[in-house]
Amino acid sequence: MISFADILAPIAPAQFFERYHGRAPLHVPGGGETVSSHKFSGVMSRAKLDELIAVPGLWTGQSLQMARDSAMLPSADYLSPSGAPDAATVRAQLDHGASLVLNDIDMAAPGLAGVATVAQALEEALESKVQANLYSSPRERQAFASHYDTHDVFAVHVEGEKLWRIYEGRIDNPVEHPTFKSQTRAFHEQAKGKVALEVVMKPGDLLYLPRGQYHDAVALSERTIHIAFGAVGVIGLDVVSALFARAVDDPLFRADLPRRHGVGPESGEAAFAARLRALGQRLADLATDPASLAAIRRFQDEYRYRAAPLRYRLTARDFAVVRQSGGWALARAGIGTPIPPGLDGAVGWIVGQNEFAEPDLAAACPQIGNETRGELLRSLLAMKVIAAV
């Protein structure tokens, strides 16, 4: 179980929050470990990624995307006629210089306990919502132009080497709003400024970027893989939204504003200005009201991604686990597929379910480790024994 301190090590969490969080980029080298033993080796690997890409029915045109030379590829370039990504076409695009993006992999794929554990550790320490996107790029290819994100980024590097350029420019606390999303390429090129820092990311490295920090990256090795954990915290606009919900119950906020150019006791500029002052004072009172404070505290405490785990169903009801050649096999219509030793109980449990999620399987078969459980689910998906709901 990886902790926030493990993710940052050797930087102490207190040092991170004092010097870097929301303030400045931070590169934490992985210490020169080998690819198979660095501190993020259990999070993702090239072999695991290749296996995930090949699982039928797991990805959609929204969860799997591709880019090349700073532009997203049309979905028709890698989707099958059914609208699902085609594994062979995805690999061909990778071979021809495209980059792969897998969105929300901590919630969308089986057997990725390492990814989910990092996301959970970040959520708890940052009191934020955290989701994970995977990026895989070929040598000397830049998938995205210089840009900033509207969330903090914790980039965990797991394969190959990638050059990150971090620029002087930084937008002050951008959010997901047209004000920021509609900015032009010319604006970004001017706002990013000069390169302030260049970092070559290697397996086991961590790079933290506060939101609004301009950056770009280019792969230096044959194929690179990193996972970007995006963290979104509660902001002042969330408080405004919470106060709006309470203000609806107040008749003063539901009343028309005084007519500025009319006649009568409730009209004129003075009445208009007085009403705005009254509304402002009422908002201040609401913001410090014990009920509002309790609601906002509760909102922040619960501000986490609590998405239900991916669920699976059997593709047919006549699967059975049977004896075969001294071992066990998964059989249907008289055809049996050997089950690896020790997994017959898990497979038997699965074929007895109408619908289940990975945590259900973990609870029913605690003797099976995370990696083995993930491999089993991916194999059954590839064999079309189960399908994602």
Protein architecture, described:
The protein has 389 residues and is an alpha+beta fold. It has helices at 4-8, 13-19, 46-54, 87-95, 105-108, 113-126, 178-181, 185-191, 236-247, 251-254, 269-288, 290-301, 344-351, 358-364, 370-382; strands spanning 26-28, 64-68, 71-72, 99-102, 128-138, 152-159, 162-170, 195-201, 206-209, 213-219, 223-233, 311-314, 320-324, 327-332, 335-338, 355-357, 386-388. It folds into three domains: 4-233, Cupin (Jelly Rolls, Sandwich), CATH 2.60.120; 236-301; 311-388, Outer Surface Protein A, domain 3 (Alpha-Beta Complex), CATH 3.90.930. It is built from 15 helices and 17 strands. The strands form four sheets. Strands 1-9-6-11-5-4-2-3 form an eight-stranded antiparallel beta sheet. It is globular, with a radius of gyration of 26 Å. The mean pLDDT is 91.
Furnish the topology, listing elements before pairings.
Blueprint: H1 4-8, H2 13-19, E1 26-28, H3 46-54, E2 64-68, E3 71-72, H4 87-95, E4 99-102, H5 105-108, H6 113-126, E5 128-138, E6 152-159, E7 162-170, H7 178-181, H8 185-191, E8 195-201, E9 206-209, E10 213-219, E11 223-233, H9 236-247, H10 251-254, H11 269-288, H12 290-301, E12 311-314, E13 320-324, E14 327-332, E15 335-338, H13 344-351, E16 355-357, H14 358-364, H15 370-382, E17 386-388
Antiparallel strand pairs: 1-9, 2-3, 2-4, 4-5, 5-11, 6-9, 6-11, 7-8, 7-10, 12-16, 12-17, 13-14, 14-15
Quaternary structure type? single chain
Derived structural class = alpha+beta
Number of strands: 17
How many structural units, i.e. domains?
3
Percent range for helical residues? 25-40%
How far from one another are the termini?
A: 28 Å
Largest sheet: 8 strands, antiparallel
Superfamily (CATH H level) name of the largest domain? Cupin
CATH topology of the largest domain: Jelly Rolls
Strand order of the largest sheet: 1-9-6-11-5-4-2-3
Shape: globular
* CATH architecture classification of the largest domain: Sandwich
